[in-house]
Each structure stands twice: as structure tokens, then as C-alpha cells.
Backbone:
């Protein structure tokens, strides 16, 4: 039996609760970041279906894999046969989307887009509210689809409200929509405060000598690999710990050295255990098209963990955290001097200023403000809710 037909009995939804369908290019179980933080909080008010990009497998028929990842949040992953054409893939996803909506009792239907590419199979749905959370300038990323820029313009026309992942991105997009608001990366302070307390060290880090400079996050074209190689080469007494999955680049091009440790991807819940045993956090981002508008979530996370932080000159980091005296900015000319200065700092030196800066930041505040904008957008519309029978 087609897996989508069984949705009616497997989707656990309270009758007439609002339904929010999120279309994302990011796997829920890839890296715990902005979508997970926001939607986990949204799930207290909505039933969430997180509609991922398809997975292509050796199979004879398409299906949908469902996974309940948190209370009120179900991930839907289309499984398509290898070789399925783009047009056929869109048609299959359109059918599954319709069946999910039809078989899930709901009051209001909200679309939440992280990728404009999902319009190819969802544009026919008359959502009560359409939200575009423009987290990054996706068109500048490596291997971006040729259609992405055009579809983003279409999404701006359809969206009732638009959020951006940082101030620079807001400034670049603000003229494209009448109701657009900046929501830079926020912080789960309590989670990262755990790194300030003593605790056991992860086994794969235990034998690495101090001093340690650490990074965590996706390792892709946004990382300045040459700068990482330079720092490890000119500072042989310092050990560099690099956490995160390697995507879109060849792992073989990553620099190798005795003091450079690529430990792979770690779960979000594990991060404080690693950070508490680092001496400095660093963000060696390349300065390129892919990083022009980023607002790294790890900036406040490093700070909440109590670490001195050194970063390259990412615009939103410079104008916010460096301007407040909380992060040191470095480039290839002074990276060693900045890292050694940070290593020499007492960890407690900036904590009062850090805690004051982070005091009014939280993902709950972010969601509450977003929800207020969504309610305002909903109230301004007079749309007959989309209804379909199973």
C-alpha cells in the first residue's frame, strides 16, 4: 500500500488544531539549528509537518517515510526511485502533500518555507498564511539550483510575511516585501551554560593536549580552509578541534596536521561537553559570496559557553558582537596574534558583558515575536481556509 494513503491513521493530530507545513532543504536530523529551534517552540501552538527534500533510493515505487521527532512534530521524507525525473518528482511530492493536508484535520493552514524550490510542488495550495523564513542567501551557496533566484522572487510575491536570518540579509531583501522583519540567530542560553560547569570529557577529545581552539558547525565552502591550515602550521603548540559534518566539498582537501583534529559531526546535546574543555572558540569563515549575509548561530553559543571568541570579519558578527567588544576579529595577517591574545585572557574577563548582552536573547522570544507578525498577517487576510476531503 502506498505509504501516503496510511497518513490518516498515522498522523497524530488533535482535531482542528492549526497545521503548519514546513518546506526545508535541511534534514531535521542533520544539524540542530534555526529551523529546529523555532519549530520546536511553534509546535506548542501548531501541529508541524516538516516536509524534507526527497531521498533517492534503489526502490521500485515511491513512498513517504514518517518520523515523529518531537511532540507535535512529524518529519515527512519522500522516498523516490533513483532516476526519477525532476518533473515526476514534483508530481509525486505534490500528490503526497495534498494527501497530508487532506488527511490531517486542521483549523488554519500555514506554509513555512526555508527553500523556494518547494514552490515547484506546493504553489497550487491556497494556504491561509504563507511565511518565508529567509535564513540564508541560498542562491550564493555552492551547487545552488539555477531556478532558485527566480523561485525566490515568486515566493516573495506569495508570502504574507518574511523573516530574515540576519541584519545584513534584511537590508539586502527589505525592498522586496512590504512585511519583512530581521530575526538574527538567537541562543538557548541554558543549554550552552552547561559548558561553564565541570564535567566529563568526550572520549575522542580526551587525549588532545591543551591549549585548544575549537570550531563546530557545517564544514563546507564557507570555511576558510587555507586559514585553518595557516593557523595550525604557525601555532604547532596549539591544538585545533573541528567538529561538524563535511558537505559539498571533498574531505580529502581538508588540511592535515598533528595539531589539527577533525572529529566529525556531533549531536546538539553533546556540544557543551566538548566546549567546556576548549580554551578559545573560533570561526574561521571565508569571506565570499556564501558568507556575505550569514549570521552564525554559533556566535552567541560560544559566548554563552563562556569562551573567548575569535572570528573572521563576517559583517553581522563585526557590527553586533565585535562592536560590543565581545568577539575579536582576525584575518590571515593577525590570526596567530589574535588567537594567542584570546588564549591568554582569563575566561571570566568578558562574562559580565556577555551575560548582559545575551540576557534578552532566546529562541522563545524569537518565536513569540514571529508568531505576533504571523497573527497580524493572518488577521489582515480574508481567505477561505483550504479544505479537502480524504
Residues:
Amino acid at each position: 500500500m502506498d505509504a501516503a494513503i496510511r497518513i490518516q491513521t498515522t498522523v497524530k493530530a488533535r482535531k482542528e488544531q492549526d497545521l503548519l507545513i514546513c518546506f526545508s532543504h535541511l534534514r531535521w536530523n542533520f544539524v540542530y539549528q534555526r529551523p529546529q529551534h523555532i519549530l520546536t517552540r511553534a509546535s506548542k501552538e501548531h501541529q508541524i509537518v516538516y516536509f524534507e527534500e526527497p531521498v533517492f533510493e534503489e526502490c521500485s515505487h515511491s513512498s513517504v517515510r514518517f518520523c515523529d521527532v518531537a511532540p507535535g512534530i512529524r518529519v515527512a521524507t519522500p522516498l523516490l526511485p533513483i532516476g526519477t525525473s525532476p518533473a515526476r518528482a514534483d508530481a509525486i511530492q505534490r500528490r503526497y502533500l495534498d494527501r497530508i493536508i487532506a488527511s490531517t484535520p486542521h483549523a488554519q493552514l500555514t506554509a513555512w518555507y526555508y527553500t523556494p524550490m518547494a514552490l515547484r510542488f506546493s504553489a497550487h495550495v491556497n494556504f491561509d498564511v504563507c511565511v518565508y523564513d529567509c535564513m540564508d542567501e541560498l542562491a550564493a551557496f555552492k551547487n545552488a539550483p539555477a531556478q532558485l533566484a527566480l523561485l525566490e522572487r515568486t515566493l516573495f510575491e506569495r508570502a504574507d510575511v518574511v523573516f530574515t536570518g540576519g541584519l545584513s540579509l534584511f537590508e539586502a531583501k527589505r525592498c522586496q516585501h512590504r512585511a519583512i522583519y530581521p530575526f538574527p540567530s538567537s541562543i538557548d542560553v541554558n543549554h550552552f551554560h552547561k559548558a561553564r560547569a565541570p564535567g566529563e570529557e568526550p572520549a575522542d577529545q580526551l587525549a588532545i593536549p591543551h591549549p585548544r581552539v575549537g570550531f563546530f558547525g557545517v564544514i563546507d565552502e564557507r570555511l576558510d580552509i587555507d586559514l585553518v591550515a595557516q593557523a595550525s602550521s604557525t601555532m604547532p603548540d596549539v591544538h585545533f578541534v573541528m567538529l561538524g559534518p563535511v558537505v559539498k566539498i571533498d574531505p580529502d582537501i581538508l588540511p592535515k596536521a598533528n595539531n589539527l583534529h577533525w572529529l566529525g559531526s556531533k549531536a546538539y546535546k553533546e556540544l557543551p561537553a566538548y566546549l567546556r574543555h576548549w580554551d578559545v572558540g573560533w570561526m574561521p569563515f571565508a569571506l565570499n559570496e556564501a558568507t556575505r549575509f550569514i549570521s552564525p548561530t554559533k556566535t552567541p553559543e560560544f559566548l554563552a559557553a563562556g569562551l573567548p571568541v575569535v572570528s573572521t570579519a563576517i559583517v553581522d558578527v563585526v557590527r553586533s558582537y565585535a562592536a560590543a567588544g565581545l568577539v575579536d576579529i582576525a584575518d590571515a595577517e593577525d590570526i596567530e596574534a589574535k588567537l594567542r591574545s584570546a588564549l591568554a585572557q582569563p575566561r571570566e574577563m568578558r562574562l559580565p558583558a556577555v551575560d548582559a548582552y545575551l540576557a534578552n536573547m532566546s529562541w522563545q522570544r524569537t518565536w513569540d515575536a514571529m508568531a505576533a507578525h504571523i497573527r497580524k498577517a493572518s488577521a489582515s487576510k480574508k481567505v477561505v481556509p483550504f479544505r479537502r476531503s480524504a
Q: What stands out?
A: The longest strand covers residues 73-81.
